């Protein structure tokens, strides 16, 4: 019981309740330009108690990758592609679809945030354009330690912060899992976890869950935003992500890619 309580106190999954007054953005991020992150998806998730906000990434013309905890209790997903502004629908050529079919990893464990991945099937294939493009899945078993990466999303800029309508992004650096264990319990930092930290206290926060962590300078996705520290997003502590290399086979099996 002691170990379990310690784990729960040390992490918080990075989804956020939705309505709009609770939507903000990545801590210490910059505003994305149209088409800069063409794989980024907005997920407005319908739940019995209301709606929640998560991110996702386009895998191909009919599948979106997100966090497993973003699908808990979900009845449907409003999936928006090609957007930078969260709500302003004028003139940006966004694609909005409502999806109901999804697969969450069979070994997802919400207590320890393990195997925190899911895929959502769009009701119809989408057409790629300069603002809608898929990510690339990684190959091999690289740890990516010390590699520069980019996280993007519409999550909180600070705890209890104000609304930001524009997609935010921040540069991070992958750290070793051993180093990450100095912040989080080894019970939650597993081989299937990848951690990254910002040099200027950049961090994913509530609302960024399910969003992509990609290698700098390309569309290769190495992580899915999973959880951060329960003490808050503004301390510059590492963010924890599902390690995509651990789930490539599962993704391909579920999506037929």
Automatic annotation (TrEMBL):
The signal sequence is: 1-17
Can you name this protein? Peptidase S1 domain-containing protein
Question: Which Pfam families has this protein been placed in?
Answer: Trypsin
What highest taxon heads this organism's lineage? Eukaryota
Domain named Peptidase S1 is located at 26-256
PROSITE patterns tied to this protein:
TRYPSIN_DOM (PS50240), TRYPSIN_HIS (PS00134), TRYPSIN_SER (PS00135)
As for family, the record states: Belongs to the peptidase S1 family. CLIP subfamily.
Keywords assigned by UniProt, alphabetized: Digestion, Disulfide bond, Hydrolase, Protease, Serine protease, Signal
| UniProt cross-references to InterPro entries, sorted A to Z | Peptidase_S1 (IPR050430), Peptidase_S1_PA (IPR009003), Peptidase_S1_PA_chymotrypsin (IPR043504), Peptidase_S1A (IPR001314), Trypsin_dom (IPR001254), TRYPSIN_HIS (IPR018114), TRYPSIN_SER (IPR033116)
Q: Does the keyword Iron-sulfur apply?
A: no
